[in-house]
From TrEMBL:
Family: Belongs to the glutamate 5-kinase family.
Gene: proB
A GO BP annotation: L-proline biosynthetic process
Catalyzed reactions per annotation: L-glutamate + ATP = L-glutamyl 5-phosphate + ADP
SMART domains, sorted: PUA
Species this chain originates from: Sphingomonas kaistensis
GO molecular function, one term: glutamate 5-kinase activity
The organism's taxonomic lineage, starting at the top: Bacteria, Pseudomonadati, Pseudomonadota, Alphaproteobacteria, Sphingomonadales
Name of protein: Glutamate 5-kinase
Length: 372
């Protein structure tokens, strides 16, 4: 059964490709990558922004170095260091005929869990997408320790969807979705086209992680990724990368897959996290003009700041108060407390002159701000 076609194309989506699709273990699967690049180009032409999360570096590196499969961290990291340039070259060649530029971004778990690194990664992604590049993301396997690794690119892709504010996560591999049982072992297994909630019963259908192929994930990791994405307001599509134009057919409802609903939308989920989870570590007191600007949907600019209290770092949550001390908003500061003090009353063009650098005109960008 095919997954239902999307009611509308997502504004931003993350597409994750498993190792078994990207490489045959010896080299990249150039035809598949060209097909996928064509699908991405078609989506971009219709107004969607696409971020690619690609496995394959370790498998390509093993093939180039002649290494056998091993769980030893040093060998895996050596393979990743060798294979990552090969992987990016393959993607660059796939997108070049379309006139699209690829950009590499290597992440670790810390980049998605630490607020400062989170904001940096999100800002980099936003800048790349604005410039028209296709971000190609992988875990930084060549340097990350076991403690710092996300562990598989299914979960990494969900974290990327979360930090990018994506509306859809597409997990492409060698499986075409979720079944009531393992279809390789049970002829009566039934395909599940749509999941409204990831209940314990649904999670139990995934069984254990299948690690027989060149990748490191299985259906369980895909459902765990979908759970992360759903909590961030992002829906998930799980489908097969086999055949021509797999991404376009899956999104169009022409290929078998499993659609997993989101919980709300990305903006609401992100702002709920700011408002309900993070304790403010500082306070910014602002003038009436700034209060009005925030109410009209604007960002908090240094020009409207009257006072700064607390010892907060960049990326920390701060409370925003009016002149009477009433909290009117809270959000994530793009500057630390010391920098914020130096920027009191500054106009955007004056920031670099006062600090010697600039992280943008806003002290708190409207995307990172919740009104009280």
């Amino acid at each position: 059964m095919t997954a239902p076609p999307l009611r509308r194309l997502p504004r931003r989506l993350v597409v994750k490709l498993g190792s078994s699709l990207v490489t045959d273990g010896q080299g990249p699967r150039a035809r598949f990558l060209a097909d996928l690049a064509g699908d991405v180009g078609h989506l971009r032409a219709q107004g969607s922004e696409v971020i690619v999360v690609s496995s394959g570096a370790v498998a390509l590196g093993r093939g180039r170095l002649g290494l056998s499969r091993s769980q030893r961290l040093d060998q895996k990291q050596a393979a990743a260091a060798t294979g990552q340039p090969l992987l990016m070259q393959a993607w660059a060649e796939a997108f070049a005929p379309l006139g699209l530029v690829t950009a590499q971004l290597l992440l670790t778990a810390a980049d998605t869990e630490d607020r400062r690194a989170f904001l940096n990664a999100r800002g980099t992604l936003a800048a790349l997408l604005k410039a028209g590049a296709v971000p190609v993301i992988n875990e930084n396997d060549s340097t990350a320790t076991a403690e710092l690794r996300v562990g598989d690119n299914d979960r990494l892709s969900a974290r990327v969807a979360q930090l990018a504010g994506a509306e859809l996560l597409v997990l492409l591999s060698d499986v075409d979705g979720l079944y009531t049982a393992d279809p390789r072992l049970d002829r009566d297994a039934t395909h599940i086209a749509e999941v409204s909630a990831l209940t314990p019963e649904i999670m139990a259908l995934a069984g254990g992680s299948d690690r027989s192929g060149p990748g490191t994930g299985g259906m369980r990791t895909k459902l765990e990724a979908a759970r992360i994405a759903a909590a961030a307001g992002c829906a998930t599509l799980i489908g097969s990368g086999a055949g021509e134009r797999p991404l376009a057919r899956l999104i169009g409802g022409e290929a078998r897959g499993t659609h997993i609903d989101a919980q709300g939308n990305p903006v609401r989920a992100y702002k709920s996290w700011i408002a309900g989870t993070l304790a403010p570590l500082g306070t910014l007191r602002i003038d009436p003009g700034a209060v009005k600007a925030l109410g009209d949907g604007g960002s908090l600019l240094p020009a409207g700041v009257l006072a700064v209290d607390g010892a907060f770092s960049r990326g920390d949550c701060v409370a925003v108060q009016d002149g009477e001390g009433r909290e009117v908003a809270r959000g994530l500061s793009r500057y630390d407390a010391e920098e914020a003090v130096r920027l009191i009353g500054a106009k955007g063009r004056e920031i670099a002159g006062r600090l010697g650098y600039s992280r943008g005109d806003a002290l708190i960008h409207r995307d990172d701000l919740v009104l009280g």
